[in-house]
Design goal:
The chain is of the alpha+beta class and about 725 residues long. Helices cover about 50% and strands about 10% of the residues. Helix 11 packs antiparallel against helix 12. The relative contact order is 0.08.
Length: about 725
Amino acid sequence: MKIGFGLLLVVSLSVGAYVSWRVVYQNPQNKESMTKNRLAFEKSPYLLQHADNPVDWYPWGEEAFEKARQEDKPIFLSIGYSTCHWCHVMAHESFEDQTVADMLNKYFVSIKVDREERPDVDHIYMTACQMMTGSGGWPLTIVMTPDKKPFFSGTYFPKEDKFGRMGLLTILEKLKSLWWFQRESVLDSAQKIVQALSQTQRNKAAKEFPVVQTLQNAANLIYKSYDAEQGGFGNVPKFPIPHQLRFLLRAYQRSPDEQHILKAVTHTMDAMRAGGIYDHLGFGFHRYSTDARWQLPHFEKMLYDQAGLLLAYAEASKVTQNKVYTRVVDEIAEYLLREMQSPQGGFYSAEDADSEGEEGAFYVWQLKELQAVLSDSELAVVKQLFTLTSEGNFVDPHVGHATERNVLFTDAKAQQDTALLQKFEKIRPKLLKIRKSRMDLHKDDKVLMDWNGFMIASLARSGYLLDRTQYIQAAQQGMHFLLNAMVDADGYPIHLFRKGKSDVAATCDDYAYLIWALIELYEATLDVSYLEKAKDFQSRMVDLFWDKEEGGFFMSAQNTRDLIVRPKEFYDGAMPAANSIALLNLLRLGQLFGNAEWLTYADKVMRAYAFMALNHPSQATQALIGFDYAFGPKYEVVIVGIPNRQDTEEMLAIVKQSVGLRRVIIFKPGDGSQGKKLNALFPFTKAHQIKEGKATAYVCKNYVCHEPTTDLKKMETLLRQPNEDTP
């Protein structure tokens, strides 16, 4: 139903004299009406999903806080996201229930937050939940004072007590009593939690730490958690962690004799691609595997997973020359460009796991269903490739037994069977068409700056590594959208776009990922306008987010006023932390522009990461990629040549193939084009000229510059040193 219907403000009073704010949407054509709460005016799909709840929800903001202060009520804060399965369950079970709504509306002020819209709010209260309970997740349930200090936390709660788990109604009743009869104890506890939260945002910078030992130790510790039987790292549930795989690829490149490191990476990537965590029909990866064998996934698809895995498989393809990995890159990209890129160029956030009231119903198949639509020969191919049974291989976690439905999964050996895959490729469109006829999955169509920056960086770099110009073009289209639709008139990024601009302020993550994307687009296109923008955003990022006392970047800008603490994130989870991304950005931009201040900031970020990198490296693998770059050897390469001429292209190709990520490159057209712009950006290149009428390479390694050369073999020798290539 569109918001264009007539609006009628309704104030309803229920028993207990509390006030509930509702809006009635009236359809003048069919006279139907529907009441909605304040969330009806929000842009977030997650908040809009709760707009017709009987709970008197407020969005995060001063209106809710003031109401709580005026009425002396605690705040019930619920945080989730639109494709979260258990968020849906709790919504249907409790927030759509009038009894729960009456309790919340009478004794609490209720706030609903989309964690993807306000990652800073989510970070603070998720940290509080982990401190208070030892775990966390979504939906996140917080009860706090009117001044935003938490005193109760948890995740999903059923409506009523069951299975030994306290129900939401019981919890609300107890919390109501605590607030009214043990207020002093509640306030004291809340204050202590805030003090502890403030301490978690501090970081102790190391004065000295051994970088080489840190890198070696990190690879060894991560390898110890490797599942040699099934692939992957750690225990069930198993998450694909792309930056961990990318770091291990670099560790192998530093020490090629340690083949076990490479085997752990390739085994994991093979198992993930073969398993049910991969969508073998529509492509792309599901969120995580609920079992050790990568077979039974949690079915939602997140944009950031696709971005990270696209890049991991592209780099693995470059290192191993394994064409299966190249195919995976092409398949993920096909899914992204088909399903997740808007006509304007931005990328949507996620696809839901649920349809028809069940998780995974869109993706699973009954054997009899396949028998009905496939010929005998086609069915034989499908059964040869995938593990299918009449009983079903999908054990629904909610019922605990097989349901005659099958998840499509195969094995790594089958992925090497070219003939079998070619046969299946002729059948796949038929199955995909049938699947598309099922009830559509909810798509979270908001465009987030940080997630889009991640996606654009991955597409640009993958396109560059694998010579896929269409991916670079898609990345350029995405960046055009971000710079035109998601940057305000003063040149500051905004965090979220959906059906028009949003006023959600950009976080540090937005800046970090946007800058990374601009750097990768420059690498892929050698268009210096991308570097100009990266330079501008990096300066703004330092001004807004840098911690002048302890180093590192805060998540929220210095003018943010609606948070109880100013969060700072160093943990590389599903999305690497902004500080990890910023580390590599600062190193590369500092090299390119000869900016010693930015290199100093990079050093301080490394020192802030030192303890985690040494002791908990699996939590800082994107940061460790930055450590690897910083340790070097690092190269600066300037190529002066006539654009598109053969000798120029040959030199550029050598740079692509040899040094990889631990280098920066500047291309200076020898025909004088862009001369003023390049000289302004890179004053040190004024003296760089074509020698002997040929494309000329100026190569510096670890702050030492070699004589310029026009000889391709000599240039290759300068770049291609033993054990120094990285993906």
